[in-house]
Amino acid sequence: MKIYDVAIIGAGAAGLMAAAGMNASNLSVLILEQNSQPAIKVKISGGGRCNFTNLNITADNYISNNKHFVKSSLAGFTANDFINLVKKHNIAYHEKTLGQLFCDKSSSQIIQMLLDESCNAELLLNCVVNDVSKSENFTIETSLGCFTAKKLIIASGGLSIPKLGVSDLAYKIAKKFDINIINTSPGLVPLLYNKTKGLEELAGISIDANVAYKKQNFRENILFTHKGLSGPAILQISSYLENFNQKKIMMNLLPNIEINIDDFLDNNISVMLKKYLPNRFIDNWFKVNFQDQKIINCKRKNLEQILQQLNNFEVEITNSEGFDKAEVTKGGIDTNELSSQNMEAKKVKNLFFIGESVDVTGWLGGYNFQWAWSSGMAVASYINKKA
Ligand SMILES: Cc1cc2nc3c(=O)[nH]c(=O)nc-3n(C[C@H](O)[C@H](O)[C@H](O)COP(=O)(O)OP(=O)(O)OC[C@H]3O[C@@H](n4cnc5c(N)ncnc54)[C@H](O)[C@@H]3O)c2cc1C
After folding, report:
1. Spacing, Cα 174 to ligand 1 middle (Å)
2. Which helix (H) or strand (E) element contains residue 8?
């Protein structure tokens, strides 16, 4: 039976990048992918245009039990390194907002780029990996038979969006080798909230807001949905909630807006507020909160109270929409178990974990793909040097 130098489980963002990093070597590399096509999450990402990286990446944009862990990989293969690759393949791109880079045309271009860059690896699709064992080499049991490799890279991702074909294989393998796992939970996920405030009729309304939980805050849009709350600011803050039960988040619905109270006095307050917030929000909110009060021609005290409420709009979170709707998985392989230089498991020589399987969760905005590229390249560089 052929013994491969390297086997990679998962032809997603991280797995393909690791293979690309070893393309110029003479190593025999095998990629095993359960889906019928590679990198399905790259394909659907960024609304089909793939937000492939961000211009403002630092370790502060990542959540992990060890916040320094990402530094070495991110410095070894930076956003600029990925941008240079994109330029080399003549893929047109643009900055949308907040440093987020998207393809002008289609995320398929990024997939084709990764496949071209990793063309010397053997890619087996429709190949479900069921188990892994180690003696001198790794034996990988799959739906297409057994494979053997000297080095094994686990790039099988996390648990988010099961319908795209995900698995808990990384965690199963970690357990088998006595490698600790940080509890997993949905990240970048829409939230459900206690609607006692009568906010049921707000579905579809989007507001530029500052959303805060403890010391973390994000200034981006929030979106009221039929089920609860979504939009970039909500997805971002969701990753910072320790759990989704009875957590209170604070939303400033008039961020950085200086309101001159004198302009409002003796005017219809709801009409005035509609200059700053969507009509439907004001109508519904007033209906619920001020039904019995005559607030037309408001007085200074009333207005101060109302503005105070809009600046400190507290919402009690009751749950999240779960892995079905989460963009990423929080938690995963404990970073204390891995080398931050090359992602090798400290307890198991020649076994590596990269990408979303690891306890590293990026912000919304290209940070998660950059982690996939950087961690994939960290392993590849290390293996190349050893070859
Ligand atoms: C809807 C959506 C949009 C997103 N948009 C963005 C974005 O624009 N920018 C950004 O930075 N991030 C985005 N993300 C997050 C990003 O997709 C992930 O962080 C990234 O794909 C993780 O890369 P990975 O290679 O670790 O895992 P994945 O890309 O999930 O790849 C894992 C691969 O392993 C395969 N696999 C799993 N188990 C097995 C098994 N047992 N046998 C064989 N193969 C297996 C899977 O089929 C998959 O192909 C988005 C996520 C979602 C869900």
Report:
1. 19
2. strand 3-9
Q: Is the CB of 167 under 6 A from ligand 1?
A: yes
Q: How many residues does the chain have?
A: 387
Which residue has its alpha carbon closest to ligand 1 atom 5?
45
Helix, strand and coil in the chain, % to nearest 5: 35, 25, 40
Dist. CA 270 → ligand 1 center (Å): 45
Q: Side-chain half-sphere of 217: how many Cα atoms within 13 Å?
A: 13
Q: Is the CB of 109 under 6 A from ligand 1?
A: no
pLDDT of residue 297: 59
Please give the single-letter amino acid code of residue 122. Answer: E
Amino acid at 341: Q
| Alpha carbon of 155 to ligand 1 centroid (Å) | 9
- Looking at residue 296, what is its pLDDT? 57
The token duo for 240 is: 């910072």
Ligand 1 atom at minimal distance to the Cα of residue 366: 11
Work out the percent of the chain whose per-residue pLDDT is above 90: 83
Dihedral of alpha carbons 44, 33, 53, 116, sign: negative
Whole-angstrom Cα distance, residue 191 to residue 173?
31
pLDDT in tens, 347-356: 999 999 999 9
* pTM for this predicted structure: 0.97
Evaluate: CB of 15 within 6 angstroms of ligand 1.
yes
If you measure from the C-alpha of residue 35 to the centroid of ligand 1, how many angstroms do you get, rounded to a whole number?
A: 12
Low-confidence spans in the chain with pLDDT less than 50: none
Q: 284: Cβ–Cβ under 8 A, 6 or more apart, which residues?
A: 198, 199, 201, 202
